[in-house]
Amino acid sequence: MEQQRFVLLPTVGGAWVIRDTQDGSPVCVLFHGGRGIKKTRAMADVMLDALNAAVGRHAQGGKR
């Protein structure tokens, strides 16, 4: 399985952070708030898919 550049990690405070594994920087912090965990996780998965797909296209010389 190919390692993804952007990953979702839990925080101590119960939030999630999307982190760039290339330099370790946080890209986005997500709090589930009133949406609930399932909806927040679904949104995070869409964001991760988009970020990782964009990196893949860029690495292959594709247009943004």
UniProtKB/TrEMBL annotation:
Q: What is the lineage of its organism?
A: Bacteria, Pseudomonadati, Thermodesulfobacteriota, Desulfovibrionia, Desulfovibrionales
Q: What is this protein called?
A: Uncharacterized protein
